[in-house]
Prior knowledge:
There is one protein chain. This protein is α+β, with helices and mostly antiparallel strands. The chain has helices at 16-24, 26-32, 82-85, 118-140; strands at residues 4-12, 37-40, 47-51, 57-67, 71-78, 90-99, 103-112. The chain has a seven-stranded antiparallel sheet with strand order 1-7-6-5-4-3-2. β2 and β3 (47-51) form a beta hairpin. α1 (16-24) packs across α2 (26-32) and α2 crosses α4 (118-140). The protein is globular, with a radius of gyration of 15 Å.
Amino acid sequence: MAESKFVYVTYIRTTAERLWDALTRPEFTRAYWAETIQHSKWTPGSAWEICVPDGRVWDSGEILEVDHPRRLVLTWRNEHFPEMKAEGFTCLTYEIEPFGDDAVKLMLTHEIAIPGSKVIAAVSNGWPAVLASLKSLLETGEALSAMTKWKDCA
């Protein structure tokens, strides 16, 4: 089966628990991910959504797998752009593992069984900045300034 896939690996000087919190808690995502907020119960089968500062749901999905604080898998569908929404749900996987005594490895995989996916092309441009901002926040206490304010791309 042909597919589109984006894989990103980074190493962050933090703990697995703190990284998990940064990936799932609204007070963290708001700080490093352009003022967006994720909503979910973070249990398998629960709904997931990410909202932009004015309250619009930008992306949505369902939590598929939770292995706290090592692995989180969810479906993801863009709700804003019709051509991306039409592709349906992608799959996002976060995998966290220890790296030495003072860091963790984060591997993000975002994929869909559609060759040349517009969603995967879009997130391939967005994820590196989001994850760099997350890394900066956890290691220095400050997110990247370019990632602290929402810029509506509508």
